[in-house]
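Structure (tokenized):
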């Protein structure tokens, strides 16, 4: 049932995009967090990664044109994959599934790939992000940094406010790292805690106003 809902939602979003912006598109990764399982729906190269007992476990697979099964699907539909500054569908798009990009149908599709993960006691947190992060930060490094922050082993130098949650601060650390490493794409990062951590937060930003 959860899988059907995710697929229908993706199709509805795609229909809306096709009528408005035929030459524009976006990726999407959606995670439904239930008491007993996680349901992940992915379309494109945004990614969901689970930290389970300190180990990075990818819960989605990037839809890239050079992925053998995706390349086979594109070619079966009559399209081709061209290596033009990286592998691209028809030499244009560097992903093989998206919401929108309707001018590349039927080669680029909006059907999500759905994964179901049975929750375990060892599941710690999720990192859900666009390729602006994953292009420059590995799954393993992302999980390592978030785990160290949530356990209080590292601290973010300054926080914009004192009300930010530990998960939000951890996401900011990854965003700042991607920027420092020269990421050239949009960077969106979400951290979802699956068990309680007692992080120590960030150093308070100094008040520069006159006393």
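Design, position by position:
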């Amino acid at each position: 049932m959860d899988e059907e809902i995710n697929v229908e939602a993706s199709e509805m979003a795609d229909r809306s995009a096709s009528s408005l912006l035929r030459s524009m598109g976006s990726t999407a990764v959606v995670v439904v967090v239930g008491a007993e399982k996680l349901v992940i729906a992915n379309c494109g190269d945004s990614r969901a990664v689970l930290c389970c007992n300190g180990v990075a476990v990818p819960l989605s697979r990037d839809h890239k044109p050079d992925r053998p099964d995706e390349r086979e699907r594109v070619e079966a539909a009559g399209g081709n994959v061209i290596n033009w500054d990286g592998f691209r569908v028809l030499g244009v798009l560097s992903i093989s599934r998206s919401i929108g990009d309707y001018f590349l149908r039927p080669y680029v599709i909006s059907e999500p790939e759905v994964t179901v993960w049975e929750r375990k006691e060892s599941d710690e947190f999720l990192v859900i992000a666009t390729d602006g992060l994953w292009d420059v930060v590995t799954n393993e490094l992302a999980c390592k940094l978030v785990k160290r922050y949530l356990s209080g082993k590292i601290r973010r130098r300054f926080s914009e406010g004192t009300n930010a949650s530990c998960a939000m601060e951890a996401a900011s650390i990854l965003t700042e790292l991607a920027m420092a490493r020269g990421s050239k794409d949009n960077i969106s990062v979400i951290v979802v805690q699956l068990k309680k951590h007692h992080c120590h937060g960030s150093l308070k930003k100094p008040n520069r106003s006159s006393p």
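Reviewer-requested clarification: The first strand starts at residue 25 and ends at 26. The chain has five helices and eleven strands.
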